Amino acid sequence: xxxxxxxxxxxxxxxxxxxxxxxxxxxxxxxxxxxxxxxxxxxxxxxxxxxxxxxxxxxxxxxxxxxxxxxxxxxxxxxxxxxxxxxxxxxxxxxxxxxx
Amino acid sequence: xxxxxxxxxxxxxxxxxxxxxxxxxxxxxxxxxxxxxxxxxxxxxxxxxxxxxxxxxxxxxxxxxxxxxxxxxxxxxxxxxxxxxxxxxxxxxxxxxxxxxxxxxxxxxxxxxxxxxxxxxxxxxxxxxxxxxxxxxxxxxxxxxxxxxxxxxxxxxxxxxxxxxxxxxxxxxxxxxxxxxxxxxxxxxxxxxxxxxxxxxxxxxxxxxxxxxxxxxxxxxxxxxxxxxxxxxxxxxxxxxxxxxxxxxxxxxxxxxxxxxxxxxxxxxxxxxxxxxxxxxxxxxxxxxxxxxxxxxxxxxxxx
Lengths: 100, 304
What we know:
Chain A: This is Zf-TFIIB domain-containing protein. The structure holds two protein chains of two kinds. Chain A has helices at about 35-45, 90-95; strands at about 10-15, 20-25, 30.
């Protein structure tokens, strides 16, 4: 997706199960519905250790964590995306899997 | 006699130690013929000519490690390397590789479990360092050499910047940090075989880069593929969770694995990107979509 402010591409990161989109240009952050609440919940757990509240039902399976320099993943909750896997494995990647 | 026919003769002799079978009907196949390794199979015997300049003492220690860990590493047929021309040759049983035409059948769980057991064992004393960072540095040297004849190449600056941003240990310029573990050093899907072929258990092959070092390096190639958007998330999750379930020490049992994977995965992304540019230049072709994904990842590593 594109940043609503500066229109640079936004990259998806997963931190503690929360999907965060950060703009590669202005570094602004986009949160989906419920994610601010999830962050607030994590923060309150940090300051007041206690039994965690029941997790909200998750609309999308969480993608595994990825580094800040990672590609925006097609398997993320926005669908689409720019992953290079998709319907078939690219021939060039098939070769890469087997070479040093 | 050039290396390949001489090595084929060695493989045939090793497969048929008794005289009088010189005209056997067994098949012979060259499994690899690259500057850094020539590998020939004859019947169930594989002969490997190691890279020119291979240190004989280091190779002996690495082959001995494979002999000592036959449940993790394919054990050699004979303990000693023999000289052939200017190369050292070792002998191995044939194992069935992962089908390159069916990488979806990749044994991610088996690979992860073998690595976890390799890393968790007591590291053998006297073994040289794992050669992962040295290989990354060699890839960058090849890129520099290729650029001398192709000064117009445009994608390399982001690769060089991403390389320069790595700590010295990841560039092979300083000792690796942390308590050393026994590492494979060059994990990819070509490094797994089933022995005995075709239905035996999976084992790791190729001890050339085996040694002591940062075990996260062995997870970093799949990690880099995943981070670059090439390996689907479910395959990465299968590999990582199988490693954690098997008690692998390279990453935290739970929590963010990228705290330890980040640097090795960056190094392997840069290494793979450098070699992709070298190959594209040699073939006079543009980078394809997959290779461009590596370059893009290098660019993001040093983005302001």
